[in-house]
């Protein structure tokens, strides 16, 4: 996990206490200056199909992380909009291993970006609809605005969550609203279990080495560049070659074998939470197919 945005001294204390995940922003990252880039359409030479252009429309910047306005294929225009980020980006602090947060009041704000990475408005949460760092690392905020209101006022459509599991080898782009920067690579494979400090995540997406995500990219949507849909949420990477420690996740296979991949980054799949999102943007953890952990 990337470090949350805290003062440099506090960040040092937290790192020493083993409490800082790897991918939220540090204080030295507080004034984003990264180049604003977007990926242009690319034609797949084997199929002749042109991939969708990826830009920043629908992404958001949090105080310490990145995120995006998301919907499912079944979401309705008048449903309250949802913002997705990481569980470790919650303003309430990192959820403990095994902890699940549902329907907790929140007034957090998000800077909404257009395709050119320009801020076009401020969105406000009404509650944390869901948040956890168990099995996955995700937060879903329900907003005070509907999808229709956001589109009418800002001309921005929500990003669609794919209901399909991403495929190994598929082209992906991590889009950071915090840094206004994109990172393009491919799905290298999947980690049966990804362990970092006290937390363990299941079936994590492993990126190829081209996606060198940095602090502040936590919570960024990971888009399949063939469909333009969200297939994962960016959350961590092995920074120093450490074994299963904070900021240094390790992969654990079904036989218990541990593999460390220094410099490699990861995201958490999102297709398995699509069935959990029901009418009115409510989270129903009892719905068939919903794989999010329950409180």
Notable characteristics:
295 residues, mainly beta, Thrombin, subunit H, globular
Distance between the termini: 22 Å
Percent of sequence in beta strands: 35-45%
Q: Percent range for helical residues? A: under 10%
The secondary-structure class comes to: mainly beta
Query: What's the CATH C level of the domain at 171-271?
Result: Mainly Beta
Report the C-alpha radius of gyration, rounded.
17 Å
According to CATH, the fold-level topology of the domain at 171-271 is Thrombin, subunit H
Number of strands: 18
Strand order of the largest sheet: 1-2-3-7-6-5
For the report, how would you describe the main beta sheet? 6 strands, antiparallel, barrel
With helices defined by DSSP (H or I, 4 residues minimum), what is the helix count? 2
Shape: globular
Helix-strand sequence: HEEEEEEEHEEEEEEEEEEE
CATH architecture group name of the domain at 171-271: Beta Barrel
Average per-residue pLDDT, rounded, comes to 88
Low-confidence stretches: 5-22, 26-37, 39-49
């Amino acid at each position: 996990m990337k470090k949350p945005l805290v003062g440099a001294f506090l960040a040092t204390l937290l790192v020493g206490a083993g409490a800082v995940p790897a991918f939220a922003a540090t204080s030295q990252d507080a004034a984003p200056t990264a180049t604003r880039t977007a990926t242009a359409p690319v034609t797949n030479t084997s199929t002749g199909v042109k991939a969708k252009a990826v830009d920043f429309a629908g992404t958001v910047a949090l105080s310490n992380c990145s995120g995006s306005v998301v919907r499912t294929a079944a979401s309705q225009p008048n449903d309250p909009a949802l913002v997705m980020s990481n569980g470790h980006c919650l303003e309430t602090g990192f959820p403990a291993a095994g902890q699940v947060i549902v329907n907790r009041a929140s007034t957090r704000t998000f800077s909404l970006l257009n395709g050119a990475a320009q801020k076009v408005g401020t969105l406000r949460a009404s509650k944390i609809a869901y948040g956890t760092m168990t099995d996955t690392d995700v937060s879903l905020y329900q907003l005070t605005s509907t999808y229709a209101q956001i589109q009418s006022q800002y001309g921005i459509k929500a990003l669609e969550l794919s209901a399909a599991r991403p495929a190994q080898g598929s082209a992906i782009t991590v889009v950071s609203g915090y840094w206004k920067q994109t990172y393009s690579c491919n799905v290298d494979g999947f980690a049966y279990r990804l362990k970092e400090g006290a937390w363990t995540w299941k079936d994590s997406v492993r990126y190829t080495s081209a996606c060198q995500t940095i602090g502040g990219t936590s919570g960024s949507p990971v888009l399949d560049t063939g469909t333009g849909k969200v297939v994962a949420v960016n959350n961590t990477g092995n920074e120093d070659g450490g074994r299963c420690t904070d900021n240094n996740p390790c992969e654990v296979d079904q036989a218990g074998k541990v593999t460390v991949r220094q410099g490699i980054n990861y995201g958490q799949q999102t297709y398995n939470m699509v069935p959990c999102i029901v009418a009115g943007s409510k989270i129903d953890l009892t719905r068939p197919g919903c794989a999010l952990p329950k409180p």
